[in-house]
Amino acid sequence: MKSLIIAAPQSGSGKTTVTIGIMEVLKLRGLRVAPFKVGPDFIDPGYHRLVTGRPSINLDGWMCGPAFVRETFSLHAEDTDIAVIEGVMGLFDGFGGRSEEGSTAQIAKLTGAPVVLVVNARGQARSVAALVRGFAFFDPDVRLAGVIFNNVGSDSHARILREAMEAAEPALPVIGCIPADDRLDIPSRHLGLVTAEENRLPAHFLDHLVNVIKESLDLGLLWSVADSPGPAAGTSLNLPTAAGSEPVRIGVARDEAFCFVYEDNLRMLAAAGAEIVPFSPLRDAGLPADLQGLYLPGGYPELFAGELAANLPMKEAIALAAADGMPVYAECGGFMYLTEGLVPLQGPIEATHRFVGVFPVTTRMLPRRKALGYREIELAGESVIGGPGMVARGHEFHYSEISEMPAGIERLFRVRRGSVELGMEGYRVRNCLGSYLHLHFGSCPELAVHFVEHCRNYQRQEQ
Length: 463
Description:
Elements lengths: L1 E6 L7 H14 L4 E6 L4 H10 L4 E3 L1 H4 L1 H12 L4 E5 L17 H8 L3 E6 L6 H12 L5 E9 L2 H14 L5 E6 L8 E2 L2 E2 L9 H14 L2 H7 L22 E6 L9 H9 L2 E6 L13 E4 L8 H6 L1 H12 L4 E4 L1 H5 L1 E5 L9 E2 L4 E7 L5 E9 L11 E8 L1 E3 L7 E8 L2 E10 L2 E4 L2 E2 L6 H17 L1
Parallel strand pairs: 1-4, 1-5, 2-3, 2-4, 5-6, 6-7, 10-11, 10-12, 12-13, 13-22, 14-16
Antiparallel strand pairs: 8-9, 14-15, 16-19, 17-18, 17-20, 18-23, 20-21, 21-22
Helix pairs in contact: 1-2, 1-8, 6-7
């Protein structure tokens, strides 16, 4: 199995387009491609899955730690021909300015995968050699194996770029020069690219992308610089499991409105004894039969607020399940769906789309980003995902806020950003826990075990 990391000096360089183009070309050649994404991103993995037909797995050294990164990389790359990892932001960007934690560079070291740097060459000529040389020597433990220039203006522009690299870094190959092409743009919105659930990448887009990749890149050279992972990638963990032999059925919301979920969270729930049962709050007339728990992940409920509000049988089923004491875990968009409703951007309170109503607050969309960044939580009390003192890590990114939560609603998360205390979050009503945070169960595998155990206890009570 070979491996490759597609990185860049900064966001907006074209990593995602280049990554899915390379994945599509490799797949068309009959190769089994294992897709990965560095960092807490949910949108890019959707495009990876669309192209490869396999779930794309997030690799994050800050949220999950080195041992879990190695374990999940080895597990999900097993029985494939090549692992293609898309980086995050710039190659060395991560949790802070002094540490490599959370960066693509850290993942390169943990997986042993070589790095191909995608450089946006628009507005640059010989200066690209200085930029690439700086990235090549910044950290000698990161293997920079080649460079791809994107947004190249002409054949003469490409010639200058190649000459500059040959003069400055002759040992670092230029794998190709991709011309500027508006037809390769993927639509964006406030949280990043439009999701793959909404933008299915039409055949003419993929055909054109494949032709551009074939014509612009030396695919033989790309294959030769891809390398087998180093010995560090072989570590495996013994993940905890919940007591009990019979699986519990956990309904997981998965549709266009709720598509932000870490695949490893679902894997760890299954390993702990859960049967994952997908359902759609948008289209289904009710919950699947015989559930013992609900997991409502994030997404874009604000884009489908009218449809979600109109699905009265689904809202009633979820409200009844929560009132009955069924364990429910909701994060970000899922948490918004459990509030009383959503007030549109700049809309009056009378325009509120009525949601499930478990939490006695409304959610209002904002014109600017409300929160972004890594978060660490410590549980202050017993909940469906764990007890007092348990620590977990995740990420927060949203353009909405809730009205003031009544003082009688319990807060269970002590939230930190680095050394900065951010106050209490994580709200509980009966066995329903809601939060704006996306927690990665890889940061604390016991989270999955606790949730499954609570679901099993609920199953016993029902019986």
